[in-house]
Amino acid sequence: MPIREEFRHLEPYGAPQLDVPVALNVNENPYPPSERVVADIAHAVAQAAAGLNRYPDREFLDLRADLAAYLYRESGAILRPEQLWAANGSNEVMLHILQAFGGPGRRALSFAPTYSMYPEYARDTHTEWIVGRREGDFTLDRSKALAAISRHRPSVVLLASPNNPTGTALPIDLIEAIAARTAELGSVLVVDEAYGEFRREGTPSATTLLPSYPNLAVARTMSKAFALAGARLGYLAASNDLINALRVVRLPYHLSAVTQAVARAALRHSEELLSRVGQLRQERDETVHWLHSQGLQAVDSDANFVLFGTFRQRHAVWQSLLDDGVLIRETGPDGWLRVSIGTAAEMAAFKAALEKVLKASE
Ligand code: PMP
Questions:
Q1: Are residues 212 and 97 in the same domain?
Q2: Does ipTM surpass 0.95 in this model?
Q3: Residue 232 and residue 103 share a domain
Q4: Which positions fall inside the Aminotransferase class I/classII large domain (predicted)?
């Protein structure tokens, strides 16, 4: 096939989708929607189905208004519907950013270890990918980060906070300093808050910086805390001008009438869908504590997963857990593994399987 030269021999990105009793590998919310929410979503889909001969609302302003109202409730950000954008997962909204602001002769920059799709957005849009480093404890050094941005003058800077796979959040004053520097340079700053709802109480969301920084975009998703990964709805908040640039590159009618209906119905039940966040946070902190008690390193997390290690042969540990029906993720720096936070029963299965490995290696 006449595939682009740099794509030859590349495997498509994605974690293994295996049928296992305990799936703790892709940071989903383990709690399915209640019967009441399922019924309401089904009703909304039935209504949308009656009009499926027509293309969907291309500007989806009703959904954008609902998302703005949700962000106000969640983080106090005051946004107009025109300041919201959505697509099929936050991966797609961030690809729109690279399509609009990246491209040949331009650069995108982030700091590793971070979300492994970022270099793929860059690759797919012919944007040069520049990767800086986080510190040994996965924090970001302010002066080094600002210096890297000034030196490389990227068109787009991507910062995940809380970060995947480390779980670490960035202090808001550091995000603001980077927003200011990127504004001076005429660059776009994307703060990826896919795991934003799991952040520790009292930590402000980067959405609160939006009024001061028209070059800032804050990406969110309904896939994680919102327990709606299967619906594929990601969104971002930004200035009107930034959103208008994304409207140029989106495909016509990219968000189906069914997706819009499902997302709006789910947003009507946001309180219920998010009701397990507190429990998951607690389970996360307990998991970190338990891993420490086993003599392991575990990174304090603001997300719904924990990076832990280190193992001389992490693949063997991952495989042993899988043999016991527990699927986690082999990702992050050498020697580390990542576990998503599941139900109490799933975490008990994870701990039992890992204890077995640790005993066997004594
Ligand atoms: N950003 C981060 C940091 C993620 O970890 C993920 C999912 N793993 C995404 C974005 C994309 O999620 P989605 O496309 O489901 O919104």
A1: yes
A2: yes
A3: yes
A4: 22-349
Picking from 55, 97, 50, the residue whose alpha carbon sits closest to that of residue 253 is 55
**297 and 331 part of one domain:** yes
Our answer on whether the CB atom of 91 is closer than 6 Å to any ligand 1 atom is: yes
Give the mutation target among 24, 91, 192 for probing the ligand 1 site: most ligand atoms within 8 A of CB. 91
Q: Which of 206, 238, 271 is the last residue of a domain?
A: 271
List, in order, residues 6 or more apart from 291 with CB less than 8 Å away.
Answer: 297, 298, 306, 308
- Pocket perturbation via mutation, ligand 1, pick of 111, 163, 192 by most ligand atoms within 8 A of CB: 192
Q: Which domain holds residue 281?
A: 5-31+276-360
What span, in angstroms and rounded, lies between the C-alpha atoms of 192 and 1? 35
- Within this chain, do residues 41 and 19 fall inside the same structural domain, yes or no? no
Q: Splitting the chain (362 residues) into consecutive groups of 10 residues, what average pLDDT does each group show? A: 92 89 97 96 98 98 98 96 98 98 98 98 98 97 98 98 98 98 98 97 94 98 97 98 98 98 98 95 98 98 98 97 98 97 98 96 80
Token pair of 203 as six digits: 């930590």
Residue carrying structure tokens 């070059």: 215
Whether 199 and 170 have beta carbons less than 8 Å apart is answered as no
Are 264 and 329 in the same domain?
no
DSSP letter (8 states) at residue 250: S
Atom of ligand 1 nearest to the CA of 233: 16
Taking the alpha carbons of 18, 19, 25, 30 in that order, is the dihedral positive or negative?
Answer: positive
Find all residues with CB under 8 Å of 313, minimum gap 6, and list them: none
CATH code of residue 67: 3.40.640.10
Domain count, the chain: 2
Pairs from 34-39 (Cβ < 8 Å, separation ≥ 24): 34/272, 36/269, 36/272, 37/265, 37/266, 37/269, 37/272, 37/273
Strand partners, 250: none
